[in-house]
Design a protein that fits this description.
Keywords: Acetylation, Membrane, Methyltransferase, Mitochondrion, S-adenosyl-L-methionine, Transferase, Transmembrane, Transmembrane helix. GO terms for molecular function: protein-lysine N-methyltransferase activity. Its main location: mitochondrion. This protein has seven helices and seven strands; from the N terminus they run αααβαβαββαβββα. The protein has 218 residues and is an alpha/beta fold. It has a seven-stranded mixed β-sheet. Strand 6 and strand 7 form a beta hairpin. The protein binds S-adenosylmethionine.
């Protein structure tokens, strides 16, 4: 009977062909789902980036000796430079952070090198050195300080933590030559007697001459 009940012809055609789109994937649904992919990509990408940047800053806390990134103060650097007065040659900053000590030393005429575990800090240090025009005399390497031999350096700077000082003291005593000077910032070495001390509080700096420690004249 015409005009009776039943399915309208256009709907019947679609469902008979067996290829009707699910309601969620209509024009509107497609728009919504591409926004979904886009947002997921943005959130996912941001999380990966945050993880990649944060991990090198957080992993020192998981090491046996936790040596976090704490930059030297302006006064501390001035005290280091004071201890370098009348010295020359090569200089190394052990755990060079954002490169400020190495750059300050390069500006004083030293051939200065920094070893640093955190790659972001090393790349940033290189950028800073370039910006300050000392990229030829200030070099930075991504390295674990315990795997580097320091024998070639005549000036050694370290801003460490108390837990690492006994082990570092032994390492430097074995490796350094008689004409070397070691400058410790904030925390002194436990056994060595300093030749000079300057500054106060957190800016205190101690200088140790290997020749004195060994009872030899340079
Ligand atoms: C206290 S901060 C001193 C930074 C810089 N020397 C200054 O005075 O501004 C110590 C630095 O040592 C780095 N560090 C920690 N463990 C290290 C390791 N095993 N080898 C090399 N660098 C390390 C940290 O990432 C941090 O930047």
């Amino acid at each position: 009977m015409e005009g009776g009940g039943g399915t309208p012809p256009e709907i019947l055609e679609e469902s008979q062909a067996g290829c009707s789109l699910p309601t969620g994937l209509g024009a509107n649904g497609l728009k919504k789902s591409s926004w979904g992919f886009f947002l997921t990509g943005i959130v996912g990408g941001t999380l990966v980036a945050v993880y990649a940047v944060a991990t090198p800053f957080l992993t020192p806390a998981l090491r046996k000796i936790c040596l976090p990134f704490v930059p030297a103060t302006t006064k501390q650097i001035a005290n280091v430079v004071k201890m370098l007065h009348c010295r020359r040659g090569s200089l190394v900053d052990i755990g060079s952070g954002d490169g400020r000590v190495v750059i300050a030393a390069a500006k004083e005429g030293f051939t200065a090198v920094g070893y640093e575990l955190n790659p972001w800090l090393v790349w940033y240090s290189r950028y800073r050195a370039w910006r300050e025009g000392v990229q030829d005399s200030a070099k930075f390497y991504i390295s674990d300080l315990w795997k580097v031999t320091f024998s070639q350096y005549t000036n050694v700077v370290v801003f460490g933590v108390p837990q690492m000082m006994p082990q570092l003291e032994e390492k430097l005593e074995l490796e350094l030559k008689d004409d070397a000077r070691v400058i410790a910032c904030r925390f002194p070495f436990p056994r060595w007697t300093p030749d000079h001390v300057t500054g106060e509080g957190v800016d205190t700096v101690w200088a140790y001459d290997l020749s004195t420690l060994r009872g030899r004249r340079p």
